[in-house]
């Protein structure tokens, strides 16, 4: 069992950076859309404040930091025993 776990971990480590990169790009796209929406709204609505824009940017940076510090963790293992 340990050999299979080690092999699975090695495979996961190889894909970790790719997964983090994809998630970071998706995060960037999501927040770019939100920031563009707020910018467009701010042009026609003076009630949209710079603080709202800054809050979205702060949230994006915090999530980006969490993604960049992500790591692998084994949560569970399922064993099937066939006789």
In angstroms, what is the radius of gyration? 20 Å
Largest sheet: none
Strand elements, count: 0
- Mass-distribution shape: rod-shaped
Helix-strand category: mainly alpha
Number of domains: 1
SS strand fraction: under 5%
Order of helices and strands: HH
What is the CA–CA distance across the termini?
A: 17 Å
The stretches of 5 or more residues where confidence is low (pLDDT under 50) are none
Mean residue pLDDT: 92
What is the helix content?
Answer: over 70%
Q: Helix count, per DSSP?
A: 2
Secondary structure layout plus pairing:
Blueprint: H1 2-44, H2 50-68
Structural key phrases:
83 residues; mainly alpha
Question: In a nutshell, what does this entry contain?
Answer:
This protein has 83 residues and is an all-alpha fold. It has two helices and no strands.
Give a written overview of the molecule:
The protein has 83 residues and is mainly alpha-helical. It has one domain. The chain is 75% helix and 0% strand. The protein is built from 2 helices and no strands. Helix 1 (2-44) runs antiparallel to helix 2 (50-68). The relative contact order is 0.15.
